């Protein structure tokens, strides 16, 4: 009986460990730079500057935080829609953001 209980506990821990690998990225900070236009997904689309050389693009920025030069903290997850942007510019990676707060 104890071998069976041990086996179930091991399987349970493995499932929890695998599930935690799929969790979203920890809090990030950035500055809302500007609004851009892309097709195929929700509009508007915003560029968020994370550092001097790194930015992301998101279509899930809540309306209350859609202000240029606003410093925000947020969590990210894999994109939920496909954005089709014009080829005349190089756009940063498209990521969904949530749990947004201004800082």
UniProtKB/TrEMBL annotation:
Protein name from the UniProt record: Lipoprotein
Organismal lineage = Bacteria, Pseudomonadati, Bacteroidota, Flavobacteriia, Flavobacteriales
Please name the PROSITE patterns in this protein's record. Answer: PROKAR_LIPOPROTEIN
